[in-house]
Design goal:
By secondary structure, the chain is an alpha/beta fold. The protein has eight helices and seven strands; from the N terminus they run E-H-E-H-E-H-E-H-E-H-E-H-H-H-E. Helix 3 packs parallel to helix 4, helix 4 runs parallel beside helix 5 and helix 6 crosses helix 7. It is globular, with a radius of gyration of 18 Å.
């Protein structure tokens, strides 16, 4: 166990990649602040399950990533509950697929707020404690779309390119404080986020579901396979280890070769 006595806040951890990261950190002994939207009873089941399965403590923060004050309170909840926030994973994210001229303005604003600005708010709340203790790990879930674009995803691609820049900037600012800041850039990972964009992509491109999966999604990925949530979580655990203490400001691809093209 490499993360005993550490506390990790993982945004958007009620589902998909974030949940896999929370479980992987708990397996390594970290106390967990879960966050995300969803059914209250389901979330409580997840929270309690992490405690019993891994013998750690887990609390849930209902912070909405659209709200700066709630994001700050999420970090404070971790500090109040466990004494520190040592690891911050900015992972919450949403997607919307539409030609740019029809892109709903409120969807653009939401995607920039949740996928990019929320990371800024969480980072600025967590960094002072990390600096005071001389140790911290900040991991941002970016995307292959932080490096390359796809049509009809203007807000998402803009936000993900933004988080790659934020990662590098903060990495430089905190480099002498024992804090590393990196982003993980997965290709297509089979999660509810990917499943949900299939109908819109079908509409935007006039394709069937099978065509979207094989000709649009997996077309991008040379391995022709989805990345798994557990593979992403393993990289996050590695980034928290001593072996990774000299990795900072990196944008780490896990995309089956997509961005090598
Ligand atoms: P998901 O839909 O399974 O999970 C998203 C999480 O974010 C959920 O817990 C959800 O409740 C939370 N969330 C959404 N809006 C929120 C809000 N306003 N406040 C608080 N929480 C909110 O999706 P996922 O695929 O696990 O995505 C996680 C991250 O990984 C996202 O940043 C996404 O862009 C990124 N990513 C996903 C893929 C993929 O193929 N699935 C690829 C690259 C990057």
């Amino acid at each position: 166990m490499t993360l005993t006595s550490k506390t990790a806040v993982i945004t958007g951890s009620t589902s998909g990649i974030g949940l896999a990261i929370a479980r992987a950190f708990a397996k390594e002994g970290a106390n967990i602040v879960l966050n995300g939207l969803g059914d209250e009873a389901e979330i409580e089941k997840t929270r309690a399950g992490i405690e019993t399965e891994f013998g750690v403590k887990a609390v849930y923060s209902p912070a909405n990533m659209l709200k700066a004050d709630e994001i700050e309170e999420m970090v404070r909840l971790g500090e109040r509950s466990f004494g520190s926030v040592d690891i911050l994973v900015n992972n919450a994210g949403i997607q919307f697929v539409s030609p740019v001229e029809d892109f709903p303005v409120e969807k653009w604003d939401q995607i920039i707020a949740i996928n990019l600005t929320s990371a800024f708010h969480a980072i600025r709340a967590a960094v002072p404690g990390m600096k005071a203790r001389g140790w911290g790990r900040i991991i941002n879930t970016a995307s292959a779309h932080s490096l390359v674009a796809s049509p009809f995803k203007s807000a998402y691609v803009a936000a993900k390119h933004g988080i790659a820049g934020l990662t590098k900037t903060v990495a430089l600012e905190v480099a002498t404080h024992g804090i590393t800041v990196n982003c993980i850039s997965p290709g297509y990972v089979w999660t509810p986020l990917v499943e949900r964009q299939i109908p819109d992509t079908m509409k935007a491109r006039g394709l069937t579901k099978e065509q979207v999966i094989n000709d649009v999604l997996l077309e991008a990925q040379p391995t022709k396979q989805f990345v798994t949530v557990d593979q992403v979580a393993s990289l996050a655990v590695f980034l928290c280890s001593d072996a990774a203490s000299q990795m900072s400001g990196a944008n780490l691809s896990m995309d089956g070769g997509w961005t090598a093209k």
